[in-house]
Amino acid sequence: MQKVLVTGGAGYVGAHTCLRLSEAGFLPVVYDNLSNGHAEFAQWGPLEIGDINDAARLDAVFAAHSPAAVLHFAALIEVGESVRHPDRFYENNVAGALCLINAARRAGVEAMVFSSTCATYGEPEQMPMDESHPQTPLNPYGRTKLMVEQMLRDFDRYSGFRSVALRYFNAAGADFDGRIGEWHSPETHAIPLAIAAAQGSNAGFKVMGRDYPTRDGTAVRDYIHVLDLAEAHVLALKYLLAGGGTEVFNLGTGTGSTVQEVVDAVARVSGRPFEVADAPRREGDAPALVADNRKAREILGWSPSFGLPEILESAWKWHTQGLPALQQAQT
Questions:
Q1: With the C-alpha atoms ordered 47, 51, 53, 55, is the resulting torsion angle positive or negative?
Q2: Whole-angstrom Cα distance, residue 131 to residue 248?
Q3: pLDDT band per the 50, 70, 90 thresholds, residue 327
Q4: Can 212 be counted among the known catalytic residues?
Q5: 3-state SS assignment for residue 232
Q6: N or C: which end of the chain has fewer CB within 10 A?
Q7: For position 331, what pLDDT does the model report?
Q8: How many structural domains is the chain composed of?
């Protein structure tokens, strides 16, 4: 089996991508410092514990496994945290990515799939958003991801290091067998928070703004199943291994759901209506974020297979069965 190095492979999207890589005939070697990931998620290949800013450790792992390419997920992602502690985000997301790229180049690896984000776009100027949309991120998180995209373009132009940057919209859902899913602490994403409210969380669920110019007044987001994201990474990897050049692709469904629609859908899936409180808009939140995914369809041959019903069905199973079972096994 051809090996690939998956940094952050014990995290949410990284672990689901390892699952899909294994099904596609690759052996994912997970490299993770476990600060946000979970060793229990490294189920489809070896786990190497290390930090992406540790050049010596990276060199040792590259030498031990001789991967054909790198899939890079290891990043800090919480927007609010990036505003409070920008230093941590630049050190991990930018300096860490540079350390990883240089280690890959020293090892003779010339291809990387990079986990990027629609947060590099900033305020939407058109909808849906395609890859040519201006990139003016609103926070340090988005700026760090944009800086890595820019670094990768320079490395391609001046040294031949090829990459694919995948700009996610709203990752959601879980493995349908309940083996892995979202497991963040603290949790900040809408769907897990709504599920927690349906499970009886004392925090309930807050709708941040009901005065947006949308069909029901709540913000619209493009929720993409994590397994569809994982499939896109496998296709991007195959594209690079076949000699494809540096590219960037949006990953979203091309349609959006309002926050209220998500709340209503979680209540239906769970059979448990739950308390919802209204709260002011969050600063910087756009009324709508929806992907134009035509480029990924045309070049990678990728298309999303799942919609909001499958996202919520798989997420509910994970949060009510899979995650509790893993947590119980730890005690």
A1: negative
A2: 7
A3: confident
A4: no
A5: helix
A6: C
A7: 67
A8: 1
Give me the catalytic one of 121, 141, 223, 239: 141
What is the DSSP code string of 44-84?
A: SS-EEE--TT-HHHHHHHHHHH--S-EEE------HHHHHH
In a domain, 325, yes or no: no
113-156 residue pLDDT tens? 999 999 999 989 999 999 999 999 989 999 999 999 999 999 99
> What's the token pair of residue 127?
């909808």
Residue in this structure with the two tokens 């320079």, named with its chain if needed: 154
Burial (0-12, 13-18, 19+ Cβ within 10 Å), 52: buried
Backbone angles phi, psi at 50, to 5 degrees: 180, 165
How many residues in total does the chain contain?
331
φ, ψ for residue 162, nearest 5 deg: -90, 150
Residue 208 lies in a domain: no
Measured between alpha carbons, how far is 209 from 215 in angstroms, rounded to an integer?
Answer: 13
- Residue 162 is predicted with a pLDDT of 98
Residue 34 belongs to domain spanning: 2-173+223-254+291-305
Structural contact between residues 214 and 288, judged by C-beta atoms closer than 8 angstroms: yes
For range 155-179, the mean pLDDT: 96
Question: Longest C-alpha distance within the chain, in Å?
Answer: 56
Residue 234, number of CB atoms within 10 A of its CB: 22
Q: What is the pLDDT of residues 233-286, one digit of tens each?
A: 999 999 999 999 999 999 999 999 999 999 999 999 999 888 899 999 887 778
* Residue linked to tokens 């305020």: 123
Which domain CATH number covers 49?
3.40.50.720
Give the pLDDT of residue 152: 98
What average pLDDT does range 168-193 have in this prediction? 92
Per-residue tokens: 113: 């799939």
Tell me the residue type at 144. Answer: T
